[in-house]
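Researcher: Please translate sequence to C-alpha cells.
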Amino acid sequence: MFVIGVWTAQPAAAMSIKDCGKAKSYPLSHASTSTIDPLRYYARTCVSYTGYKVLHVSEVKIYRAGNAVQWKKWAVDHGYKVNKTPAVGAIAWYGSSHGGGYGHVAWVQRKNASGTKVHLREYGWPTRGKFGERDVNKSQRSWPEYFLHVEQKPAK
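Model: Translation complete:
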C-alpha cells in the first residue's frame, strides 16, 4: 500500500499493480531482495525497477516477462519498436553477455540531442540490489545493445 508515495509496512503482496504505477518514487528501495513485487519480479533488481518506471510513466505493464535478457523478445512480441536509437522513457537493453547471462535493463532518463549519450537510472548495476545512475557514451563498450521503445504506442 502507498501513502502519499511512501511504502508502508504492509507486505508487497498487498500492493497492487495499480498502486505501483501511481507511486512517485520506487516503492521497494528498502525491501528485501527476496520480496516479489506486483509485476512478479524480485525487488531491487533491474527488471523490478525498470518495470515500475515503465508502468509509472508509460502505463505499460511488463508483467512476468522473465529475466532482462527476455525483455527484447517481449517488446517485439507486443508490437513495440526495438532499435539502436535512444529515447527518453525507453528501456536500455543488454543481452546475455551482461548480468551473468540474465541480461540487464535500465531506464533512459535523458539523452543528448545527437543521441550519442544517455543517462540511465537502474538497479543492480554495478552493485546487486543497489540503485545507480550513470552517463553512457555511444563510443563506450557499456552502450546498450538495443532500446525498447515502450514509451511509444505499439506498432499495429
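Researcher: Any highlights?
Model: The longest helix spans residues 46-58.
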